[in-house]
């Protein structure tokens, strides 16, 4: 089973801290683990040159070059040798015009250009409490993946299950709940599935025992190089 550990730096890090981080992380020996860093756009070029491991964008425009002030196209990413992006992170769904349909366009753009997609989905607290998580996630997946040949793009898409109520809160679903969600997704979709939401050095030992889980998308704990190195080592145990 393929294993992933993906850092999501969100809107953090200085240039100096990012450079020191990559010097430290380059010294690691990685076995049987896909290691990726989704970092702010402004560091992508330098990171791609300095980091041995994969570098991803956190977001991408749904469009080709054009009059879209402030946006970054997949064409920019390719120009800087960046071959993948997170799409549909809940913070972008919440703060920007990332509707399910726009996210679908973004996924299609990346796939059509042989790029990697980390598609984030996840329910809010209310949906979770009402026990409607699965139907909510399936609705997101249905729209986000509309018109896509799933089998053909099996290797290009990773689903990140990130309950919104778990991101940055220290609260996480129990292992059985995560197992069940992943089971349901994998019954219907041919993709690897990772988990995100408050993953840290204290809970990863337990989380990684979830049998059908392919790894983690880590926010806050990935911005501290020491902590993230611990997570990397634990993933390879
Ligand atoms: P967190 O963020 O690990 O800080 O909860 C995860 C994410 O938003 O991807």
Provide structural commentary.
With 237 residues, this protein is an alpha/beta fold. Helix content is 40%, strand content 16%. Strand 1 (4-8), helix 1 and strand 2 (34-38) form a beta-alpha-beta unit. Helix 1 packs parallel to helix 2.
Give a quick rundown of the structure:
The protein is of the alpha/beta class.
Shape: globular
Q: Given the helix and strand composition, which structural class is it?
A: alpha/beta
Please summarize the sheet with the most strands: 8 strands, parallel
In whole angstroms, the N-to-C terminal distance is: 14 Å
Low-confidence segments: none
What's the tally of helices? 10
| Share of residues in strands | 15-25%
Average pLDDT works out at 97
Rg, rounded, reads 17 Å
Secondary-structure element order, N to C: EHEHEHEHHEHHEHEHEH
Level of helix content?
25-40%
Strand numbers in spatial order across the main sheet: 3-2-1-8-7-6-5-4
What is bound: which ligands? 2-phosphoglycolic acid
The count of strands amounts to 8
Question: Which key features would you list for this structure?
Answer:
10 helices, binds 2-phosphoglycolic acid, 8-stranded parallel beta sheet
Topology, element by element:
Blueprint: E1 4-8, H1 15-26, E2 34-38, H2 41-50, E3 54-56, H3 74-79, E4 84-87, H4 90-95, H5 100-112, E5 116-121, H6 125-129, H7 133-144, E6 157-161, H8 175-188, E7 192-196, H9 204-207, E8 215-218, H10 225-236
Parallel strand pairs: 1-2, 1-8, 2-3, 4-5, 5-6, 6-7, 7-8
The structure holds 2-phosphoglycolic acid.
2-phosphoglycolic acid binds at residues 8, 162, 167-168, 196-199, 217-221.
């Amino acid at each position: 089973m393929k294993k992933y550990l993906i850092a999501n730096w969100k809107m953090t890090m200085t240039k100096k801290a990012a450079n020191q981080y990559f010097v430290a992380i380059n010294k690691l020996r990685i076995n049987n683990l896909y290691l990726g860093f989704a970092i702010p756009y402004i560091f992508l070029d330098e990171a791609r040159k300095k980091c041995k491991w994969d570098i991803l964008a956190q977001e991408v425009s749904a469009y080709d070059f054009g009059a879209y002030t402030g946006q970054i196209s997949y064409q920019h990413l390719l120009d800087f040798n960046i071959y993948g992006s997170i799409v549909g992170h809940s913070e972008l769904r919440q703060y920007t015009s990332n509707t399910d349909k726009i996210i679908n366009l973004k996924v299609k753009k990346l796939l059509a250009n042989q790029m990697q997609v980390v598609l984030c989905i996840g329910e809010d607290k209310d949906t979770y409490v009402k026990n409607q998580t699965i139907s909510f996630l399936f609705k997101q997946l249905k729209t986000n993946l509309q018109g896509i040949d799933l089998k053909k793009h099996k290797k290009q898409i990773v689903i990140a299950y990130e309950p919104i109520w778990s991101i940055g809160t220290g609260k996480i679903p129990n292992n059985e709940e995560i197992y069940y969600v992943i089971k349901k997704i994998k019954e219907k979709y041919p993709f690897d599935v990772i988990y995100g939401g408050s993953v840290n050095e204290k809970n990863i030992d337990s989380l990684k025992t979830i049998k059908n889980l392919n790894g983690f998308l880590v926010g806050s704990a990935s911005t501290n190089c020491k902590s993230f190195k611990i997570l990397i080592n634990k993933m390879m145990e």
